[in-house]
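Researcher: We plan to redesign the surface later, but first we want a full-length starting point. Tokens attached.
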């Protein structure tokens, strides 16, 4: 359990289902909040479920803050396990969603998985994180009314920081020609980032990590990379590189450094700023002339 400095005197205890949400709570709430991280850095956001030990850590929590958009499939079950009056706040609920539709900018996604699906990785957008800071600030003020002014100030400062990171990213990416703004990754985790900075997004393996990709599927991916004149393909920090390696071998395209897809990498990769700066610098290194 990770708690901020001064947690013993914190006004309110809350829980986060994702490291990036915990990071946001700490930035907005400062010393007034004690944060319990359910999913620890290094965990798998797509397959995690709270254990009995995790539930014990939730005792005394006023609310659980979740990423939302169906990232946490266990939320209904968790809600049944919480005490009376302990609510679940889906931080991403009011943030506009990207839908995965066959024929959209998402190219190679298993149609049965993608049709009508929502991309849950909304926190790859700095602007979305600015919106989320305000959501968190409002919810913390509701839970702890005496701290309302502090939470409003924390949310304003955090949102300003996020928008500053957006401006920084725009400057760093400015040197990549429009024709080369094609972000090719393994999974469909970077749609919000691609939209924010004018990239065509091509996730070779869709959203899932366990799909059975046939030789015909891989051949189609190879064909597309060649026809689109892709400059680089980016693997991900917690994904199996086998299929990406095969495609690289077939096309001879440049292999970029791994991107942080799920915001759960140990160290700086489990904070938004750490993840975001790493990913932007990685894209620049792979695609800039």
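Model: Full-length starting sequence:
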């Amino acid at each position: 359990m990770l708690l901020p400095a001064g947690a013993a005197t914190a006004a309110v205890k809350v829980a986060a289902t994702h490291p990036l949400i915990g990071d946001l709570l700490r930035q907005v709430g400062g010393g007034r909040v004690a944060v319990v991280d359910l999913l620890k850095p290094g965990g798998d956001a797509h397959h995690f479920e709270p254990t009995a030990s995790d539930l014990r850590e939730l005792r005394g929590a006023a609310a659980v803050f979740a990423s939302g958009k169906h990232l946490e499939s266990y939320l209904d079950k968790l809600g049944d396990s919480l005490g009376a009056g302990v609510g679940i706040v889906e931080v991403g609920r009011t943030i506009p969603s990207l839908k995965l539709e066959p024929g959209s900018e998402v190219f190679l996604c298993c149609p049965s998985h993608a049709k009508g699906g929502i991309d849950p990785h909304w926190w790859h957008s700095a602007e979305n994180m600015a919106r989320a800071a305000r959501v968190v600030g409002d919810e913390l003020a509701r839970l702890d009314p005496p701290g309302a002014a502090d939470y409003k100030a924390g949310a304003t400062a955090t949102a300003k920081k996020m928008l500053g990171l957006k401006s920084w990213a725009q400057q760093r990416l400015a040197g990549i020609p429009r024709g080369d703004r094609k972000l090719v990754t393994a999974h469909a985790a970077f749609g919000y980032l691609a939209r924010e900075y004018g990239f065509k997004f091509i996730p070779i393996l869709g959203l899932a990590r366990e799909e059975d990709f046939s030789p015909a599927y891989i051949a189609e991916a190879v064909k597309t990379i060649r026809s689109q004149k892709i400059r680089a393909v980016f693997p991900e920090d917690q994904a199996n590189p086998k299929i990406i390696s095969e495609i690289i071998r077939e096309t001879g395209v440049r292999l970029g450094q791994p991107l942080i897809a799920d915001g759960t990498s140990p160290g700086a990769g489990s904070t938004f700023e750490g993840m975001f700066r790493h990913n932007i610098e990685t894209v620049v290194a792979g695609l800039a002339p």
